[in-house]
Design brief:
The protein is mainly α. The chain contains five helices and no strands. The protein folds into two domains: 55 residues; 42 residues. 68% of the residues lie in helices and 0% in strands.
């Protein structure tokens, strides 16, 4: 079994503050967030904060807070992009937005 991530072990009140800071900073400033958490007595690494932030960002994009659901949505979107790129495969290069539109049509 994978080791629990340090940020996930933070108290809920600290995670809520971290989530707010992540949103306010447009999911950037991981060094400052790491220093802030360390100053509160929570020894976390910048990498751990970054991994947590990326999962949180994807969760917000997907419109839910369930990490498993987020992974499934991202996987589905990537599969649709792959199918769209195969369907639109021609000898000439197509703009990325055409492939994206086709993938969005596949997702319904």
């Amino acid at each position: 079994m994978a080791r629990p991530q340090t940020v996930n072990q933070l108290p809920d009140s600290i995670k809520k503050k971290l989530n707010k800071k992540l949103t306010e900073s447009s999911f950037s400033g991981y060094v400052q967030l790491t220093e802030w958490l360390n100053s509160l007595g929570y020894p976390v690494s910048k990498s751990s904060v970054h991994r947590y932030a990326e999962r949180r960002r994807l969760s917000l994009i997907a419109g839910n807070d369930a990490p498993g659901a987020t992974a499934n949505i991202v996987d589905t979107k990537l599969r649709c992009l792959k199918i769209a790129s195969l369907c639109l495969k021609t000898d000439e290069k197509l703009p990325a937005d055409e492939v994206t539109k086709c993938a969005e049509n596949l997702m319904g």
